[in-house]
Design brief:
By secondary structure, the chain is of the alpha/beta class. 31% of the residues lie in helices and 27% in strands. It is built from 12 helices and 19 strands. Strands 1, 4, 5, 6, 7, 10, 11 and 12 form an 8-stranded mixed sheet that branches. The protein has a 5-stranded mixed sheet with strand order 16-13-19-17-18. Helix 3 crosses helix 5 (168-180), helix 5 (168-180) packs across helix 6 and helix 8 packs parallel to helix 10. The structure holds magnesium ion. The site of magnesium ion has 5 residues, from strand 13 and helix 8.
Length: 392
C-alpha cells in the first residue's frame, strides 16, 4: 500500500523583515498571493493527500482569499514560535495521522512538484530527509568587530531548505517531548529530530526554491517571473464615436480636452481608451468591451473609461501576465492632438501601470476625406502586446 502523505504549510510568521503591513506570505507575486502559489503546489500534487496550513489568528481574511477554491484543510492557528506553529499543525493532523509529513515554509513558493516527490522518496527510505544545497561561496567566520577570524571548511556544510520530510509519528512525538521539556529553540524540524536522537538524511534541493525574505528577494522573483512570460500575444482594437452638438470638451486617452463639440456615446465616449481596451482583451482572446460592459447596462452610463482600461489590465494580471506595450492612433480633423500627446501617454501609462516609453500615440487627419474628413467623428485604432506565462 502506498504511504499516506500530508503537508504542514507554516504561514504564521509576521514577516517583519519585509516592508509593509501585509505579511510576506500574502503579498502578491505573479498575480497571486505567495501563499496561494505554495498551497497550489501541494494541493495539486498527486501524492499529497492532505494540506494543513498554520496561520496567524489576525490573518484569517487574507488566508481565506489566498486559499479560496483550493482543496486544503481548514487552517489552524500558530504560536509564538515556528516550532509551536508546526506542532499545532501536526496535532491537527494527528486524528487521521499520515505515514509521512512534509513541513514547508509558506514563503518558498517556487518549490517544484518534483522536489515534493523527491522529499517523499527520500523520507520513505530514511525516515527523515531534508533538501540541501552545497555551499558554493567561501565561508568566513568573523569577530564582533567585523574582522575575519578564519575560513570555514565548506565541504562539510550544506544550506538546507524545505519541504523537510519525516515519518509522522516520531516527529509528533519529538515535538510533544520538546514542549513538555520546555525546549523551544529549534528553528527547523530537522534540528528537533536530531535532538530526539534520530538520523536526518539530505537530498538534492533546488537553487530556485528560495525563501522570500527581503525586498530584494521579491524584486528578483518578480524579474525572474517577467523573464518567464514567453507567450507574447498581440491584439488590435478599433472604435469610432460621432460628434454631437453642444459640450465644451472631449475625453481622449483619459485626458479632458477642451473642444466646441462633445463626442456622443453611452459612457464618456473616450474612443481612444475603448479601442485600447479591445486591443488588450483581444490579445488574451477574452471578448471585447461590449461583452464585459454592455451598453444596455445603466451602470456604465456616463462612466469614466479609465475603469474599463484598468479592468482589461486586471484580466491580464489575473492570468499571471502583464501588458508589455500599447500603441494608439487617433484619426480626426479636430481637436488637434499634438498639444495633448504627452498628457495622454502619461495617463494611459498610469492606468496600465507601465512606463511611458511603452505607450505610443499617433495622430493624423483623413485629409478631409470621408466622415472623418467632414468632421463628423473620431476614429481610434489600437494595438497591444501582452506577455503571459507559457501554457497550451
Ligand atoms: Mg466606444
Amino acid at each position: 500500500m502506498a504511504l499516506s502523505v500530508a503537508a504542514v504549510i507554516v504561514a504564521a510568521g509576521r514577516g517583519s523583515r519585509v516592508g509593509g503591513d501585509l505579511p510576506k506570505q500574502y503579498r502578491v507575486l505573479a498575480g497571486e498571493p505567495v501563499l496561494r502559489t505554495t498551497l497550489s503546489t501541494f494541493a495539486w500534487h498527486g501524492e499529497v493527500g492532505a494540506v494543513q496550513t498554520v496561520i496567524h489568528g489576525d490573518d484569517r481574511a487574507h488566508y481565506d482569499a489566498a486559499a479560496s477554491g483550493l482543496k486544503v484543510l481548514p487552517p489552524v492557528a500558530g504560536g509564538a514560535t515556528r516550532q509551536i506553529s508546526v506542532r499545532n499543525g501536526l496535532e491537527a493532523l494527528s486524528a487521521k495521522a499520515p505515514d509521512i509529513v512534509l513541513v514547508h515554509d509558506a514563503a518558498r513558493p517556487f518549490c517544484s512538484a518534483e522536489l515534493v516527490s523527491r522529499a517523499i522518496v527520500a523520507c520513505s527510505a530514511t525516515g527523515a530527509a531534508i533538501p540541501a544545497l552545497e555551499v558554493t561561496d567561501t565561508i568566513k567566520s568573523v569577530d564582533n568587530n567585523g574582522h575575519v577570524t578564519g575560513t570555514v571548511d565548506r565541504s562539510t556544510l550544506r544550506s538546507v531548505q524545505t519541504p523537510q520530510a519525516f515519518k509522522f509519528a516520531p516527529l509528533l512525538e519529538a515535538h510533544r517531548r520538546a514542549a513538555k521539556e520546555g525546549r523551544d529553540e529549534f528553528t527547523d524540524d530537522a534540528a528537533l529530530i536530531e535532538w530526539a536522537g534520530l538520523k536526518v538524511a539530505v537530498f538534492a534541493g533546488e537553487q530556485g526554491n528560495i525563501k522570500l525574505t527581503t525586498e530584494d528577494d521579491f524584486a528578483r522573483a518578480e524579474a525572474r517571473r517577467i523573464a518567464n512570460l514567453t507567450d507574447v500575444r498581440i491584439g488590435t482594437g478599433y472604435d469610432v464615436h460621432p460628434f454631437d452638438t453642444g459640450g465644451d470638451h472631449v475625453w481622449l486617452g483619459g485626458v479632458k480636452i477642451p473642444h466646441d463639440r462633445k463626442l456622443a456615446g453611452h459612457s464618456d465616449a473616450d474612443v481612444a481608451l475603448h479601442a485600447l481596451v479591445d486591443a488588450i482583451l483581444g490579445a488574451i482572446a477574452d471578448g471585447d468591451i461590449g461583452t464585459h460592459f454592455p451598453p444596455s447596462d445603466m451602470r456604465w452610463r456616463g462612466a469614466s473609461s479609465d475603469q474599463f482600461l484598468k479592468y482589461a489590465c486586471e484580466r491580464v494580471t489575473k492570468r499571471g501576465g502583464r501588458v508589455s506595450n500599447v500603441d494608439v492612433t487617433l484619426v480626426c480633423e479636430t481637436p488637434r492632438i499634438g498639444p495633448h500627446r504627452e498628457a495622454i501617454r502619461q495617463r494611459i501609462a498610469e492606468i496600465c501601470e507601465i512606463s511611458v516609453d511603452r505607450v505610443g500615440l499617433q495622430a493624423t487627419t483623413s485629409e478631409k476625406l470621408g466622415f472623418i474628413g467632414r468632421g463628423e467623428g473620431i476614429v481610434a485604432m489600437a494595438s497591444a502586446t501582452v506577455r503571459l506565462p507559457w501554457s497550451w
